[in-house]
Specification:
33% of the residues lie in helices and 20% in strands. By secondary structure, the protein is of the alpha/beta class. The strands form three sheets. Strands 3-4-5-6-9-10-11-12-13-14 form a ten-stranded mixed beta sheet, sandwiched between helices. It has a two-stranded parallel sheet with strand order 1-2. It has a two-stranded antiparallel ribbon with strand order 7-8. Strand 12, helix 9 and strand 13 form a beta-alpha-beta unit.
Length: 347
């Protein structure tokens, strides 16, 4: 069966015309799905019963369903979502201090990048998510947050998987999210986080409206980075940063570099001091993220005093650096922790 949420709004219109339906019918269905969050043709009351039956027989709307949720003390909610082939992914609904919501969504089942500080890497790579499976995560989280079509939220591709390793489907999903007949989400509310695939960044830069970009950096030299991020071997820092300097960054925007601090690995004074030289001629900020432990990992976060000392060195170099308090740690929903409950469900 075909999945309607795999299609852009214009493709939905074309598909309905091929079915012999007038163009306004596609507009009605799109409004139900993306404005009202309705994922069942039978609930679309301005469609005739016969049309609802016809659409139900040929199309599915939703490509996932919730099987598990965990709520943290800070209000963060992690969702276990099962796909039609019984693979399971996780998405996280994060309440922000501003009152807005951030939706942390996945782009793959598992991940092939092998980052040593990330629990998802231990799953290995299973498969890419389809555009629908990405879009439906956003729709599900919006329903659970009880937001209407006018309430703002942010989408961050920081869940399971490497977005630039599934770039075709991620771009298609983003086109649906930002289409005025889709979710009509501003490009500035979407952030793609990558471990630094140079060819993917190069391709993303050619897009008419590229998203905000966050780079998982985690070291100031290739030797240290390769020990914890194997992707460095084919994507050295020099090439990565050269490509970022070519990226069409809008005048008032800057890159976000994510730096997971791991005790006795990348938290030395010289690591902090080298960042200023490394990131020369870029507009950026750094998010310092103390390592979030997960079962089976030998890594530890640095002591609070070491974290603050690292930040102070960055301040002395006139670098904007924030120590990010990870939300959802107590439910394994923080940065680098996703996948634990997936394995539990499959075992």
């Amino acid at each position: 069966m075909k999945t309607l949420t795999d299609l852009s709004p214009s493709e939905v219109c074309d598909a309905f015309q091929e079915m012999g339906l007038p163009s306004f019918r596609s507009g009605q269905v799109l409004q139900w799905v993306y404005e009202n969050g309705v994922m069942d043709f039978q609930e679309m009351t301005n469609l005739s019963k016969s049309l609802r039956e016809k659409l139900t027989a040929q199309w599915q709307l939703n490509s996932l369903r919730e099987i598990k949720r965990n709520e943290a003390a800070d209000g963060t909610v992690k969702f276990g979502l099962v796909l039609n082939d019984n693979n399971i992914i996780e998405s996280v609904l994060i309440p922000m201090e501003t009152g807005k919501r951030t939706f942390c969504i996945s782009s793959q089942v598992g991940c092939a990048m092998g980052c040593e500080f990330c629990n998802t890497a231990r799953m290995g790579f299973v498969r890419n998510l389809t555009p629908s499976e990405i879009v439906c995560q956003v729709l599900h989280l919006r329903r659970q947050a009880e937001l209407n079509e006018k309430q703002a939220f942010n989408v961050v591709f920081m869940g399971m998987g490497e977005p630039l390793a599934n770039l075709d489907n991620v771009l298609k999903a983003m086109s649906i999210l930002t289409d005025r007949d889709g979710l009509n989400l501003s490009r500035r509310r979407i952030t793609v986080s990558t471990c630094g695939i140079v060819n993917g960044i190069r391709r993303l830069a050619r897009e008419p409206h590229p998203p905000r970009l966050a780079i998982s950096l985690n070291a100031s030299d290739d030797e240290t980075r390769q020990k914890i991020m194997p992707i460095t071997e084919g994507n050295p820092l020099s090439e990565l940063l050269d490509q970022l300097r070519r990226y069409p960054l809008p005048p008032r925007e800057r890159f976000t570099f994510e730096y997971v601090l791991i005790k006795n690995v990348n938290d030395r004074d010289k690591d902090a001091a080298n960042l200023s030289r490394l990131l020369n001629k870029l507009r950026y900020k750094i998010n310092l993220i103390p390592f979030n432990p997960f079962p089976g990992s030998d890594f530890l976060p640095p002591d609070p005093a070491r974290i603050e000392a690292f930040q102070q060195i960055l301040f002395s170099k006139n670098i904007t650096a924030t120590i990010r308090k990870s939300k959802g740690q107590d439910i394994q929903g923080a940065c680098g922790q996703l996948a634990a409950s997936v394995r539990t469900e499959k075992e």
